[in-house]
Amino acid sequence: MAWFKRTDKGIKTSTEEKKDAPDGLWYKTPKGNIIHTRELKSNAYVCPDDDYHVKIGSKEYFEILFDENKFEELDGNLTSGDPLQFVDSKPYTTRIEETIKKTELNDAVRTAVGKLNGEDVVISCMDFNFIGGSMGSVVGEKIARAIDYSLKNKIPFLMISKSGGARMMEAGFSLMQMAKTSAKLALLDNAGIPYISLLTDPTTGGVTASYAMLGDLNIAEPGALIGFAGPRVIRETIGKDLPKGFQSSEFVLEHGFLDFIVDRRQMKNRLGTLLKLLRN
Any idea which UniProt keywords this protein has (predicted)? Predict the structure, then answer.
């Protein structure tokens, strides 16, 4: 078995002694570029070789945006009920419990207050890993309460959207959150308190049709999927082929539905500048 030990090549490590590289050390972008996860994190989760913006959640956005990652979370213990006693492949209550255990999140949005480049701000950030970032009663309630906090304390509100749309397990209760959050934002507008909406990949469905597109400023990350219905549904509805990339943030910007697109690596400084301007 000399061929196995490869002593002629100076390789003497036995199979039992070999160690596999730990999972999760490297990230490969859709274009095939590979980057170490430590470098990726230091680069705001953007691959420098192709500027691909990796999908991240509230934990990472809070780390990027809040000064020294210091913030006070609001209504962190709210969890979904089961008003319709919904069952599909499993009971809704079971799905919620399993998702909470898997993601260590209580629902698809987290809200917090802190400072961004020295400016007070309330941030609500959605998490796609929690049932596709779907908007249910808890999502609507937490956003509404975050807006109330902004109103009471006269602090600007930043909404970071990332969602597949309304949560089907709550049916009409979920759809009501569109009107609920939109009405709260109208109060924010009446009070003259700034609202910035940041759309990330993906932002679709009832979220796009409500609070995601109602900002005083609507901004997005590069390459984000932004739309209401999916491309296949639209194509089958209108019976026409759609332009290439028609639901990308770049296409949406070109057609007037966004104010501008911001690279995540410049996001904190750009938002800090906006908050200073809006405060003055």
Answer: ATP-binding, Cytoplasm, Fatty acid biosynthesis, Fatty acid metabolism, Lipid biosynthesis, Lipid metabolism, Nucleotide-binding, Transferase
